[in-house]
Every structure is written in structure tokens, then in C-alpha cells.
Design goal:
The protein is of the alpha/beta class. It is built from six helices and 17 strands. It has two domains: 117 residues, 2,3-Dihydroxybiphenyl 1,2-Dioxygenase, domain 1 (Roll), CATH 3.10.180; 159 residues, 2,3-Dihydroxybiphenyl 1,2-Dioxygenase, domain 1, CATH 3.10.180.10. The strands form two sheets. It has a nine-stranded mixed β-sheet. Strands 2-3-4-1-5-8-7-6 form an eight-stranded mixed β-sheet, with helices on one face. The longest helix has 13 residues. It is globular. The structure holds fe (ii) ion.
């Protein structure tokens, strides 16, 4: 089975929610994204520093769910190759490669991952006119990574390695729980996606990269002052060496501000297994509230209603 790497980067994460207006107010308001398009209960939110057309899509729906996670491919030929590879290994395609109808267009297709999440892969999406984020401008530069809860961590990790060419960067483990998180990369960035051991399939968190430490702290303070629930942080992880502050969005999805995610030398990198029960592993700085079961539980999220159900758009 091929493990060639055909994905280039994470493009966007799409969410469906019942209280659409409240959700949009959060992401386009205090969180600092920019609404670039909206049509009949669907909005597209860009990060000002990112060439992606949008990094979050919100859709009004009766039930909260993860609609999809989208990745880039380098060329339409790579999109076709990936689709053929997936088909030949029995992966269920939701759509065949073709024109993408969302902002920026492109050529792509959708399929279910092993847990039933909808994944989209596309190439030739028009780039958005973006700009340099200025000093003290505390808004997301770009999407950093996404973390997904999986009830069978090893099965999901193997699937992503075998079908999408992800490679393991590091693992968090604890003496009484075993492996709890695998950080997975598709580039020299330490992780574009991570898999967390959860009680069910769901979104763990979406992470947004800020310009630097000052902007990350200013942003974290703004969201805290606005009264949103901060569940963990500020601190700096050992795996990935990135900063973190985690909040809950109005529907209980966890969102993170981060900076400085580690860039690896992929030729020489060997994955670590870090003991997550050590406070210094969870937070090098020692400024975050302790990671405990209550904090972990927040990011289990609700069981995803979108498992093996393709979003309508
Ligand atoms: Fe994260």
C-alpha cells in the first residue's frame, strides 16, 4: 500500500452548529477571523495572514457536527492519484475528483476517513490576497493544526499513515492510560493534525497561529475578558514546542491560540514518547493550570453526529 505523501497542508475546518449567529459572532468577532463570504446560513472565515480563501466554514444546522477537514494537494494529478489509491484500498469516496464549488474553486474530492469524518482534498484553489500581520495585532495569522478524538487511536493513526502519507512526529503517553495523543505531520511542521484518544469520534480542537508571543497573549487576554471559558493555558507544550491557550467556542468546541510550532528536520527526526503525566511535558513554562481529567474531558467534545454522514454542502 502506498504511503507517498500527496497532501501539502491543512486548508480549513468546517463546522455545523444550531446557533449559527452566536457562532459567527464568536469566530468573526473576538476570535479575530474575517468573514469573507456568506450565503443562506453558510459563512466562510479567513485568517488575515493566510493565503487560504478561508480557514473555517460555519453552517447552520439542527445538530452540531464537524462537517469536514480540508487538506491541500500540489496538483490536480495528485488529487486524481490519491483518489485512485483510496478507491483501490476500499475507502468510500463521497465525491469523485472534480470542480470545487466553494470560494476559490479548485479541483478536489471528498471521502470518509476510518472513523467516518469527511475529508476533502483539493488543488488549484485560488489564493486569497492576504497581508502581513503587524506587531501587537492579536488576530490569527493562519490555521495551525487540527486535533481529532478517536475511540481507537492506533487504528486511526495507521489509517492516516497508510492512506494519506501522514508521519508520526511524537506521542504523548501516560503510565496509567498508555498512548493518549499522536502528533502527525505532512510537512516539516511538527504536526498539521493530531489524534487524541477519546471516548468517541469528535473534534478535539482547532488551533490558530498568532504572530508571536505578545500577540498570542493579547489575544488570549481579549477572549478571556470577553467572558469565554478558558480551559487550559497559557503555557508551552513540549511536543511541538508551541504555546497554547485553549477556549471553548459557543458550542463547546475547543479552539486554541498558538505560536512557534516546531519545524523538524524530517531526515533526522525520531519520534519521542513523552510522559504526559509530567507537568513539564504538558507545560514547559509552568504557567498553565494543571492538566487534569476535567481539562481533558472538555476536549472530548460531544459525540460527532457527522460520522459517516457527508455534509449536505
Ligand atoms: Fe494544539
Amino acid at each position: 500500500m502506498s504511503t507517498s505523501r500527496l497532501l501539502t497542508h491543512l486548508r480549513h475546518v468546517d463546522l455545523a452548529v444550531p446557533d449559527y449567529d452566536k457562532q459567527l459572532d464568536f469566530y468573526a468577532g473576538v476570535w479575530g477571523l474575517t468573514k469573507v463570504a456568506e450565503d443562506s446560513g453558510i459563512s466562510f472565515l479567513a485568517a488575515e495572514g493566510s493565503p487560504e480563501q478561508y480557514v473555517v466554514r460555519l453552517r447552520k444546522a439542527d445538530e452540531k457536527r464537524l462537517d469536514l477537514v480540508s487538506y491541500g494537494a500540489a496538483t490536480p494529478a495528485d488529487v486524481d492519484t490519491l483518489a485512485e489509491q483510496l478507491l483501490s484500498t476500499g475507502v468510500k469516496l463521497i465525491s469523485q475528483p472534480g470542480t470545487v464549488s466553494t470560494p476559490g474553486g479548485g479541483y478536489g474530492f471528498r471521502f470518509f476517513d476510518v472513523d467516518g469524518r469527511t475529508i476533502e482534498v483539493s488543488a488549484e484553489v485560488e489564493v486569497r490576497r492576504h497581508r502581513k500581520i503587524e506587531e501587537k495585532e492579536a488576530i490569527p495569522v493562519k490555521l495551525s493544526h487540527v486535533v481529532l478524538n478517536s475511540p481507537d487511536l492506533e487504528r486511526t493513526r495507521t489509517w492516516y499513515e497508510q492512506h494519506l502519507g501522514f508521519r508520526l512526529s511524537d506521542t504523548l503517553s501516560s503510565p496509567h492510560m498508555g498512548d493518549v495523543m499522536h502528533f502527525m505531520r505532512i510537512s516539516s511542521q511538527h504536526h498539521s493534525m493530531a489524534l487524541a484518544k477519546g471516548p468517541h469520534t469528535s473534534l478535539h480542537h482547532i488551533s490558530f497561529e498568532m504572530r508571536g508571543i505578545d500577540e498570542y497573549m493579547r489575544g488570549s487576554g481579549r477572549v478571556t475578558r470577553a467572558g469565554f471559558t478558558k480551559i487550559w493555558g497559557p503555557g508551552r507544550h513540549t511536543a511541538g514546542d508551541n504555546t497554547f491557550t485553549y477556549f471553548l467556542d459557543p458550542h463547546g468546541n475547543t479552539v486554541e491560540y498558538t505560536t512557534e510550532l516546531e519545524e523538524l528536520d524530517e531526515d533526522t527526526w525520531h519520534p519521542h514518547v513523552y510522559d504526559f503525566s509530567q507537568p513539564e511535558v504538558a507545560d514547559q513554562w509552568g504557567t498553565a493550570n494543571p492538566m487534569n481529567e476535567l481539562v481533558a474531558k472538555e476536549s472530548f467534545n460531544d459525540p460527532d453526529r457527522g460520522s459517516f454522514v457527508a455534509p449536505p454542502v
